[in-house]
Write a structure and sequence with these properties.
alpha/beta, 2,3-Dihydroxybiphenyl 1,2-Dioxygenase, domain 1, four-stranded mixed sheet, Glyoxalase, Glyas_Bleomycin-R_OHBP_Dase, VOC_core
Length: about 130
């Protein structure tokens, strides 16, 4: 199998709001859009974010057409503290404060306007025991 691109598709009530949030706070740019659909790309993420309005008649499979509950969109960054400060200053809603897990994962979480949880993480040395 040869994979040529990667995307994550999220069902949300307001695709334009989530797209605007990802553009403002995460540096994504719109590649295409239509009624109920926005596709974003990022020059460094290696991943497209696609937002679909919940309830689209064309969504397949219909059984999975609800909102993206329980999903985390996670991006690894090089300076988590600087990103945290920047996003706080921009007014992004931080829902889980900056913290470091015993295994060396330093992270925080935000919520976009549709409640999609976006986590930024940086792997650091595990703290002393």
């Amino acid at each position: 199998m040869q994979i040529t691109a990667s995307s994550i598709s999220l069902n949300v009530a307001d695709p334009a709001a989530s797209a605007a949030w990802a553009t403002r706070h995460l540096g994504f740019a719109e590649e295409m859009s239509a009624d109920g659909f926005v596709s974003l790309a990022h020059p460094e993420a290696g991943l497209h974010l696609i937002y679909l309005r919940t309830g689209l008649e064309t969504f397949q499979p219909a059984s999975a057409a609800g909102p993206a509950d329980g999903l985390l969109v996670v991006f690894t960054v090089t300076d988590i503290d600087a990103e945290h400060a920047r996003l706080q200053a921009e007014g992004a809603e931080i829902i889980t404060p900056l913290q470091t897990e015993p295994w060396g994962e330093r992270f925080f979480q935000m919520a976009d306007p549709n409640g999609i949880v976006v986590q930024l993480v940086q792997w650091v040395d595990a703290p002393p025991q």
